[in-house]
Write a structure and sequence with these properties.
alpha/beta; nine-stranded parallel beta sheet; 28 strands; binds alpha-D-galactopyranose
Length: 654
């Protein structure tokens, strides 16, 4: 099933015609048609132009834009335009602006200036969404709704009195009684016992470390509060235009929002991704977030924004060298995207993003950028048959947002150096290098489909989650500092790994974090040594537990580092190289094994080979078939030019 009614792979970008005189629009749509653009995201920041005064709408200009797009075969990802409130709303209701943890109310003059809990903002946003849906629900250009924009980009949290009220209501719903809240938050520590919900406040700046239980619930609340705001607009849209899918653009692997929950609340997953062209490893990290996007709903997703070349918000904004825009776009498709879109269509002449690259650069149609746009449009047309196809992964990487929030809470952990993204990448990168497909999964999903389930870290692990992990039928690998606390951030009885104790057959006697730069030697049972950094543990294994690696030298000399009970492996440290563990657990999981720097990804009947290096590479094809990009038959050894790609339609039944 396709994501929208537009066939093939979507191609296009954010289009901000309100920043241009109307004479330019005709050229825009003519060039869009020339480039093969099929979708444009419109009106994201247009509230102040669509409703210049309270209740007085000016839709005429947007009518003309949508008509023009439609006449040129371009569908609209139409925003509800609520990503920035108009000046009059802020003037009439200054309380819609967010307040920071120090109590400072932020000012108008940028974007996303709203308190997620503000009823006034919500009411006005829903009213505008309703007006948009009523006006454009029947417009032939309308293909999908784009609610808000990158929630939590600038505004994740607000500490104003309204947010405090909302937080208290959320806590009441979660705990019922203040006694239950006291128990969950452990308020007997440092004298924080509450006698009524009205005494509870958001975790504003305090003299010392803030209660971690309160912080964890605040993270949950902030994700939920923004989700409520999104859902209020979504419900209105669904009521008026039930057949138009609703999305909001995610921000890859974002700490602030629990995308497992968010994805369930939208019709299709879309993402914005901006790998740094100057970082030679960024294609691996971005592949991880693309796999997350595909896993959120276990179906194709849409790359809704990416940069044709440089962005404008890093300290130094490296352009994408020739071939990279195309390669990165094909990479998204390989990982399940049913379209590639950009920020933005025409490069701005003013505003904070005037130096951000665009599909149509300042220099117009004589630029390298424009040639790249034309080339990519043509390539995506050739790949139309890939749209809608599924990825089959036999390996799952498990993580959950509240565990992430607990793990990275400030100030009260054994070490602040355990960062979830790094822990995920330590496993993902070697799997990716072998060309093994990986799904991401939340800890409470049924994991019985997978031959190998890897949990890089599950600091917060509930009894139910432990049950789900115990039900894994394939190999299970659990990383360090897992099973430490329950859903209230309270240490499990007997210490780590808490509810995973019997499954893994080990107890953690003491956490043994390493100072920055220090390493600990590890000797693998099969021979060979490796190194751990950042984190080690003093383990007490049960008698029937096999020791697969031991610490060698240092304080933990001779103690187990990696253990195994049945098909459950526990890795108590951050290994520099997890190859020995992977070699043991991967068994017959199919691996394509491309040369270093070449990415090999199967999607349905198609094999993508992506050369991320600046040298030519040779790959021995595991299948024969037709390269859709060059329309030639390939078999045996293929040569990939630097930053070039092959998309093979595999012949025969595989
Ligand atoms: C995000 C936003 C866009 C724009 C780009 C710039 O994708 O959604 O509005 O700011 O970043 O990279």
């Amino acid at each position: 099933m396709s994501l929208t009614r537009v066939p093939g792979l979507l191609f296009g970008g954010d289009y901000n015609p309100e920043q241009w005189p109307e004479e330019v629009w005709a050229e825009d749509v003519r060039l869009m048609a020339e480039a093969g653009v099929t979708m444009a995201t419109v009106a994201v920041f247009a509230w102040s132009r669509l409703e210049p005064e309270p209740g007085a709408h000016d839709f005429a200009w947007l009518d003309r834009v949508l008509d023009l797009l439609h006449e040129h075969g371009v569908a609209a990802d139409l925003a509800t335009a609520t990503a920035t409130p108009p000046p009059w709303l802020v003037r009439d209701h200054p309380e819609v602006m967010p307040v920071d943890a120090q109590g400072v109310r932020l000012e108008f003059g940028s974007r996303q200036g709203y308190c997620p809990s503000s009823p006034v903002f919500r009411e006005h946003a829903v009213r505008l969404a309703a007006a948009m849906a009523t006006r454009y629900g029947g417009h032939p250009a309308l293909a999908m709704w784009h609610v808000g924009n990158e929630y939590a980009d600038h505004t994740l949290e607000c500490f104003c009195p309204e947010s405090a009220r909302h937080f208290r209501a959320w806590l009441r719903a979660r705990y019922g009684t203040v006694a239950a809240l006291n128990t969950a938050w452990g308020t007997s520590c440092w004298g924080q016992h509450y006698t009524g919900f009205e005494q509870v406040e958001p975790p504003r700046k305090a003299p010392g470390p803030v209660n971690p239980g309160q912080l964890l619930d605040w993270r949950r609340f902030c994700s939920d509060a923004l989700l409520e705001l999104f859902a209020a607009e979504r419900d209105t849209l669904r009521e008026i235009t039930p057949d138009i899918p609703v999305t909001t653009n995610f921000m890859s692997l974002l700490h602030g929002l629990d995308y497992w929950t968010w994805a369930a609340a939208e019709d299709l997953v879309s993402d914005d991704a901006y790998p740094d062209p100057a970082d030679p490893g960024s294609h691996v990290a971005v592949a991880l977030s693309y796999d997350l996007m595909r896993s959120l709903k276990r179906r194709p997703w849409l790359l809704l924004e990416s940069a044709p070349s440089a962005v404008s918000w890093r300290e130094v904004n490296a352009p994408k060298p020739p071939g990279m825009m195309r390669l990165h776009s094909l990479q998204a498709v390989a990982h399940g995207a049913d379209g590639v879109m950009f920020f933005q269509w025409r490069q701005a002449r003013y505003g904070p993003e005037k130096f951000h690259s665009a599909m149509l650069p300042h220099g117009g149609v004589h630029t390298r950028g424009w040639r790249d746009t034309l080339r990519l449009g043509a390539d995506l047309r050739r790949l139309g048959e890939v749209a809608g196809t599924a990825t089959r992964a036999e390996v799952a990487l498990v993580f959950g947002w509240d565990s992430w929030w607990g793990l990275e809470a400030p100030e009260s952990m054994p070490s602040n150096r355990l960062r979830l993204k790094e822990l995920l990448l330590a496993w993902y990168a070697p799997l990716h290098a072998r060309g093994i497909a990986v799904d991401l999964a939340p800890p409470d999903r049924d994991l019985s489909d997978y031959r190998v389930v890897i949990v890089p870290n599950l600091y917060l692990c509930t009894a139910e989650q432990a049950k789900a992990l115990a039900a894994v039928t394939g190999e299970l690998v659990v990383g360090p500092f897992s099973g430490v606390v329950d859903e209230s951030d309270q240490v499990h009885d007997g210490g780590a790994p808490g509810p995973l104790r019997d499954l893994l057959g080990v107890a953690v006697d003491e956490f043994w974090p390493l100072p920055d730069g220090a390493t600990q030697r590890v000797r693998h049972a099969g021979g060979g040594t490796g190194r751990a950094r950042t984190w080690t543990e003093w383990l007490r294994p049960d008698d029937d537990v096999a020791v697969l690696a031991r610490y060698e030298g240092g304080d933990l000399d001779g103690l187990p580092a990696v253990t195994r009970r049945g098909t459950a492996t526990y890795v108590s440290c951050l290994l520099d190289d997890v190859t020995p563990v992977l070699d043991r657990v991967l068994g017959g999981v199919p691996a394509i094994g491309p040369p270093p720097g070449v990415e090999a990804v199967r999607r349905g009947r198609h094999l993508f080979l992506l050369n991320h290096t600046t040298a030519p590479q040779q790959v021995t094809l595991p299948y024969q078939g037709r390269d859709l990009l060059t329309d030639t038959d390939l078999r045996g050894v293929v040569r990939l030019a630097p930053r070039d790609a092959v998309v093979l339609r595999i012949e025969g039944d595989t």
